[in-house]
């Protein structure tokens, strides 16, 4: 997994910042990252990039953000990873803070209410489409229906989605033990000294996270609670950014009552008109709770665990990806998210006031997303129509 060329962190930051300005479409941005680092800059080989994407799809977090960090790691080492990660997400953060500030000032105006009434039903179409995409990708066996149904009912009854995720991982070890997997189990060699040396950046990041949490605990207990919650969400968001939605719903709406159903949907909608992954909704949540400091804490916290896991696992991934036990557990975890997303789609749908026009807008948005029309255009066109008709 060697790179063709190396680059200083500043150059990596500049390249990924420019890319981040147009990073609409979530996971679809992986193709643009590949074009940048494999074809244009020649920082990463094709084979290395493919292995990196396999890693990014295995660990929790937004896939496109993880891909940027992995490419930066291969191009410029640990500091290159940080540079790419921060630069790729920075434009989305700046725009989301701006939109959140405007939202706080004008969200109760009649025109804005009409606008967000339309955006809310578009978000429901978006999550429904993500649910179907998850299902088409991961549902292959009869046992899968058991995990999907169980996860959906459990969350629908108010259960903690993290319990559903962990239980599904454990059940995956049992349910899929007789079925062949894409990879064969291989004996893992003892970790080399070089591998342990490569773990130092991850351990350093862990130390910084500990200091960050300690300072918040002493100075701002409210922000400490926000940080811990967002880190927990990111740590369990397997399968990409959309996997964070059921976790956000449970923690932010059901447990802590920080936001209403409608407000969280509004935040998700705003996230779709910003570049970057759907987890940028954490910026919106943080801003509504504690202004700009809350936005910073929410954003840093939602992205830190996945970067830590990436830096931690890269040295050992060649061995881990051949573990048949890991593959079984991971399959169970990913399938549980189909049920969790289904439950959230239903809960959001019940929370929205439906009219014939809003139903039509939602149906058209779903059809457009199904045809793979860019999310940005779906949201923008839907917003204009909503402002005029609702």
Secondary structure layout:
Layout: H1 9-20, H2 29-40, H3 46-58, H4 63-106, H5 110-138, H6 142-156, H7 161-175, H8 193-198, H9 200-219, H10 221-236, H11 244-255, H12 261-272, H13 281-313, H14 317-320, H15 324-351, H16 356-370, H17 375-389
Structure summary:
This protein has 390 residues and is mostly helical.
Instruction: Give the overall silhouette.
Output: globular
Number of strands: 0
Class computed from helices, strands and strand pairing: mainly alpha
Please compute the radius of gyration using only Cα atoms.
21 Å
End-to-end distance? 53 Å
Order of helices and strands: HHHHHHHHHHHHHHHHH
- Strand percent estimate: under 5%
Largest sheet: none
Mean pLDDT: 86
Residue ranges: pLDDT <50 for 5 or more in a row?
A: 180-193
Counted by DSSP, the helix tally is 17
How many structural domains can be distinguished in the coordinates?
A: 1
**Helix share bin:** over 70%
Q: Could you explain how this protein is built, in words?
A:
The chain is mainly α and 390 residues long. It has one domain (9-177, 193-389). It is built from 17 helices and no strands.
Features:
390 residues; mainly alpha; globular
């Amino acid at each position: 997994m060697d790179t063709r060329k190396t680059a200083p962190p500043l150059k990596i930051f500049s390249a990924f910042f420019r890319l981040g300005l147009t990073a609409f479409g979530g996971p679809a941005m992986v193709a643009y990252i590949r074009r940048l680092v494999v074809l244009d800059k020649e920082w990463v080989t094709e084979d290395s990039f493919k292995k990196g994407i396999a890693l990014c799809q295995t660990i929790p977090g937004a896939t496109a953000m993880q891909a940027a960090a992995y490419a930066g790691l291969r191009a410029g080492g640990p500091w290159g990873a940080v540079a790419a990660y921060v630069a790729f997400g920075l434009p989305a953060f700046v725009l989301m803070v701006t939109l959140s500030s405007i939202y706080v000032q004008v969200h109760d105006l009649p025109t804005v209410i009409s606008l967000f009434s339309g955006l809310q039903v578009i978000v429901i179409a978006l999550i429904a489409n993500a649910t179907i995409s998850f299902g088409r990708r991961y549902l292959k066996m009869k046992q899968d229906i058991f995990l999907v149904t169980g996860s959906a009912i459990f969350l629908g009854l108010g259960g903690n989605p993290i319990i559903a995720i962990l239980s599904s991982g454990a059940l995956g070890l049992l349910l899929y033990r007789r079925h062949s997997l894409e990879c064969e189990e291989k004996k893992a060699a003892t970790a080399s000294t070089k591998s342990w040396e490569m773990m130092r950046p991850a351990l350093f990041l862990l130390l910084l996270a500990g200091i960050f949490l300690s300072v918040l605990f002493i100075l701002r207990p409210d922000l400490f609670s926000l940080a811990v919650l967002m880190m927990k969400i990111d740590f369990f968001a397997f399968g990409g950014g959309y996997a964070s939605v059921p976790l956000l719903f449970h923690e932010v709406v059901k447990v802590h009552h920080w936001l209403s159903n409608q407000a969280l949907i509004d935040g998700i909608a705003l996230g779709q008109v910003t570049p970057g992954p759907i987890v940028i909704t954490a910026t919106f949540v943080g801003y509504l709770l504690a202004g700009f400091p809350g936005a910073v804490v929410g954003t840093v916290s939602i992205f830190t665990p996945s970067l830590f896991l990436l830096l931690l696992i890269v040295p050992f991934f060649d061995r881990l990806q051949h573990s048949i036990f890991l593959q079984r557990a991971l399959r169970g975890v990913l399938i549980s998210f189909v049920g969790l997303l289904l439950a959230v789609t239903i809960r959001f749908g019940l929370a929205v006031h439906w009219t014939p026009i809003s139903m039509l807008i939602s149906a058209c948005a779903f059809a457009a997303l199904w045809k793979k029309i860019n999310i940005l255009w779906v949201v923008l066109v839907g917003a204009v129509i909503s402002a005029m008709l609702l």
